[in-house]
Amino acid sequence: MGVTRGYWGEFGLVVALTGAAALLAEPLVLVGAAGVGGWLVARHYAFVRAVSDAAASLAVTQSPERERLSEDDSVTVALEATLPDPAPLDLDVRADAPVGVEVDDSGTGDSDDDGTDSIADDGPSVTLPAGEREATAAFEARCPLAGEFRFDRPTVTTADESGRFTARFATGEPATVTVDARGPRDLHVGTGGDAIDTPYGDLDTGERGVGLDFAELRSYVPGDAVRNIDWKATARFDEAYVRTYETTAERRIALLVDCRSAMATGPAGATKFDYLRRFALGMVEYARQRSEPLGLYAVGDEGLIANRAPAADVESYAAAERRLRELAPGDAAESDRRAPKDTSPAIARQRARRLQADDSAYAERLEPFFAAADPYVERIEGDPLYGAVRSSLSRVSGALTTVVLTDDSNRARTRAAVRAAARGDGTVLAFLTPTILFERDGGDPEATYERYADFERFRRELANERGVAAFEVAPGDELSRLLAGHRARRRAAEAGD
Q1: How far is CA 30 from CA 22, 42, 384, 488, in A?
Q2: 194 vs 48, 183, 225, 344, CA distance in Å?
Q3: Any stretches that span the bilayer, and where are they (predicted)?
Q4: Which DSSP symbol is given to 381?
Q5: CA 13 to CA 325: how far, in whole Å?
Q6: From CA 344, how far away is CA 373, in angstroms rounded?
Q7: From residue 340, how far is each of 302, 343, 347, 374 by CA, in Å?
């Protein structure tokens, strides 16, 4: 509840009359002061009662047309206020658009009589006039960034007819809109250009490694059990091959996502990171459907920027999805360059903690910016991917399947990180993006194919590591064109001979 200048003027009149009555010893003046004061109290009581009744019976809903959309898309949000019985007051209902959402100023709405709907600087609103039961409005909200955006409970403001008293309260329920990053549509996951049938299939642990709904053939290495040799494949290829037999076991899944600057290679919306993120979101959905404990670890150029231990509750899956949509290659480095020289990570964290204890609207607006001031959870010297395995994944107890999502730009370090994750009882699924398929420089087609073939040899070498299965994640259309062109050139060369 609040009061205006008009109230304070009349309250001052009551005080003045009371003082004059005391000084002049005039009872009639005191009666006048009591009359004005009583009138103010009666108006205040009537206003409080009217607001209390309205707050108890007012139903406010804000309904996004869609709860999930893509980056830079717009969504229509309907704002509706209804009362079972008319109120004696005008009720202004205002939506609270979240930070990062742009509200269009061309909202449409309808209300009875002189009811209005508007989109002011502090948010879209609709007015339910006194004596009316319903008012509605709609506004457009554009989401230029990926993430989860929460429209907080709408705020209702009102005043009495004389303008002496005001009230403000929140009502209704919040609404959430999830914005997905625009991702590639030709995701290919497989080996040597051949797509695997179920990229998000059951993660089963075999005696020697991890498969995806199939038993994987790989070259024999000293130490493999003789009983696991696939004699038919050995006879066909003149080389010993073993088949990993799958035995279902409950394991923890750790997604290790590479967000370093090199992952930004590729066209806008179709970078190496975009393809790996789409695959990672599928892995989160896989884990959710099967209640598999899942953790998320992400590395930037200088260390960890996400560190969530494996968990199987609903909030953990949702948090992993939100973080994946927020991540972008090189973001941490850009944030470091934008930060003032005299602002250390410790100072940024201290200010963020102060903002968390502040309930004001000003602090609420600033909190997201301070939360992003230091993007690193832990800074790591040397190779961040390898360091994340040694510093964070090594702390996870129990059987762990590490899903490594990276590229082939630094093969020695990738191999070291994968080997470290596969130590002991650990098993690794490595999903690699071939850099050559994202550069698209229009060079010699055969040289491009040779670079892809070199990547494939590296992938096979990695897959032959103990406890490791390695796959390619690539733009399917580009890969198909590359392989088809190579086959056509080879046929033409054979025909020429």
Answers
A1: 8, 18, 80, 107
A2: 72, 22, 28, 49
A3: 12-42
A4: S
A5: 60
A6: 9
A7: 18, 5, 11, 11
Helix axes 314-326, 272-290, angle to 10 degrees: 170
Chain mean position to CA 356:
20
Could you give the 3-state DSSP secondary structure of residue 76? strand
The amino acid at residue 479 is L
Question: CA neighbours within 13 Å on the CB side: how many for 170?
Answer: 8
Q: In this structure, which amino acid lies at residue 148?
A: E
Q: Is beta strand 117-120 parallel, antiparallel or unpaired with respect to 123-128?
A: antiparallel
The per-residue pLDDT for 497 is 62
Edge-to-edge strand ranges of the sheet holding 303-311: 194-195, 187-191, 468-475, 427-433, 400-407, 252-258, 294-299, 303-311, 378-379
- State how far the alpha carbon of 282 is from the alpha carbons of 279, 387, 397, 450, in Å: 5, 26, 24, 31
Q: What is the model's pLDDT at position 365?
A: 61
What pLDDT score was predicted for residue 368?
Answer: 59
pLDDT of residue 120: 41
What are the φ/ψ torsions at residue 459 (nearest 5 degrees)?
Answer: -60, -40
| Residue 399 · residue 327 · CB < 8 Å | no
The residues of the chain scoring below 70 in pLDDT are: 1, 3-7, 9-10, 13, 17, 21, 29, 39, 105-123, 197-217, 223, 225-228, 233, 236-238, 243-250, 331-381, 442, 497
